[in-house]
Amino acid sequence: VSMAKSMSLLWGAGSPPCWRVMITLEEKKLQGYKHKLLGQVGLPAFKHGDYILNESTGACLYLENQFKSQGNKLIPDSPAEQALMYQRMMEGLTLTDKLNSVIYYEWFVPEDERHDSAVKRNREALAAELKLWEGYLQTVAAGSYLAGAFSLADAIVFPNIAYAFRFGLSVGHYPKLAKYYSLLRNRPSIKATWPPHWLASPQGFDILKDL
């Protein structure tokens, strides 16, 4: 915990980039860091001593590399698993973008620039992306994670999947994603960092229900 005292995080509740960093801090047993909840989307800001990282993936990699022997190991040793982990981790960032372009379309795009054709195109791109992940999970053994043991790939991808279900993604259309979601949602690092306002109103939204 003493090491965590030199760390601070500015975060937004439910923001996948913030959630990734919080899951990683929990996995590395770095509880007790200073944190402040802010309202903006597009955080986090993570600080360790004099070092500042505003890119969530960079912060997750930094934490794993600085605290390799502490808590859970999040980058596998095996070259095959490590290659898969880095691949899924980076692909997870594309998934974040595609989710944002549907869920936050009206937030990002001024009213006079909105087009039904763009909405349709964004939804189709997201559906194709989710089908890709559904396919990846077909090849994962039951009860397993994206690249073998729980890794940074899961810390980065899980918040996206949780977001998709929060916004109404159909369990029937994406059964493997739903299985992955229920496998991970009770993991201690994820339960400890669950967005507080999601607990207060568990029903969520239905933007993605027909996807």
From TrEMBL:
The UniProt entry, under Pfam families, shows:
GST_C
Q: What biological-process terms (Gene Ontology) are attached?
A: glutathione metabolic process; L-phenylalanine catabolic process
Top-rank lineage group of the source organism: Eukaryota
Q: Name one GO cellular component term.
A: mitochondrion
Query: Domain GST N-terminal spans what residues?
Result: 1-71
Q: Which InterPro entries match?
A: Glutathione-S-Trfase_C-like, Glutathione-S-Trfase_C_sf, Glutathione_S-Trfase_N, GST_C, Thioredoxin-like_sf
Q: What is this protein called?
A: Glutathione S-transferase rho
> What is the taxonomic lineage of the source species?
Eukaryota, Metazoa, Chordata, Craniata, Vertebrata
